[in-house]
Amino acid sequence: MQLVCQTWFDTSTVFATCLKGLVQHLFQLWRQGYDRYLFCPLG
Description:
about 45 residues, mainly alpha
């Protein structure tokens, strides 16, 4: 049982780290796109 819990904990930790990285990446892309739109509304 302890092994199962440990495995689940490791998996969820990895998943949380990946999710966090993905969110940060999307936020950076959004910021870049937003800045570009802000400075070049016609382009």
